[in-house]
Amino acid sequence: MTVENDGRLEGRVVLVTGAARGIGLAVVQAVLAAGGTAVAVDVRADELTAGSATHGADAADPAAMAAVVADTVARFGHLDTVVANAGLAVMTPPTDTLTAVVDAFDAQWQANAKAAFVTGRAAFAALEAAADQRGVPSDIVLVSTDHVVPNPAAVPKVGWLDGYDAAKWALEGMRRNWAATLRGRGDAAGVRVNTVAMGETDTPMLRNFLTARGVPDTTIDQMATTWMTATDVAEVFVALLADTDPIRTGTTVGLWPGQPMELTDRTR
Fold first, then answer.
1. pLDDT value of residue 264
2. What is d(CA 133, CA 190) in angstroms, rounded to the nearest whole number?
3. CB of 18 within 8 A of CB of 142?
4. How far apart are CA 220 and CA 210, in angstroms?
5. Residues of the chain with pLDDT under 70
6. Which end of the chain is more exposed for a tag (fewer CB within 10 A), N or C?
7. What pLDDT does 2 receive?
8. Which of 147, 174, 169 is nearest to 158 (CA)?
9. 249 burial class (0-12, 13-18, 19+ CB within 10 angstroms)?
């Protein structure tokens, strides 16, 4: 699936964290292809290869993200969308020491939960100002996992990713609270808050995770034939952002291999 340059995101300024690789990079490229402005943020500054502006910054660092938001508004006039994509997955089997397990938990909480929280809170004022300026809602999109929203056609996943799952479940609390708190009221357009929860997608993060678990490259290549692609996933992000209906807030879009890749029905 290819994102056409049809102007669907013309005038939109989209900040994407975890934008150096995988889904984050694909979203940046899709936003640009759809006529939008993409601000790419990643701790791996030397790997940022696409974006209207790029920032080597830790999405969990309040000072760094406040500076990124301020620079974005100064450079492009407003900020109306945040895609909180930064993340980390670490498997911690029961043979690991307690110290190693807790260290992995802290790292995953920082990358998956705190980074989303800091990024969203750093952008609140700018997002609300942009919504008032444009007259349509701004957006926060939180990037989650099918561990939280399982594929209805598959058995829910289990295993020693409890730290990862805990951090991703925290995004559900953010989504519900922020969607209710920031939604438009009266003349205020407000900020929509939605989650995209994905199953297996062919990204360096997933491939590196499997390699670290000792899975051979040939096996990974074979497994990847059934996975979604980051490009296809990014198209759903563009469709979500292009649909500016204020009703679409507080929802989760589930994307799973073998299932239709489309937006869920809106709910009131």
1. 67
2. 11
3. no
4. 7
5. 1-5, 264-268
6. C
7. 44
8. 147
9. buried
CA distance 4 to 139: 21
Name the token pair of 164. 């990862």
Name, in order, each residue with C-beta under 8 angstroms of 40's C-beta and a sequence gap of 6 or more: 16, 19, 20, 24, 25, 28, 48, 50, 51, 53, 54, 55
pLDDT of residue 212: 86
Give Cα separations from 230 to 19, 25, 117, 164, 247 (angstroms): 12, 8, 24, 20, 27
pLDDT score, position 6: 76
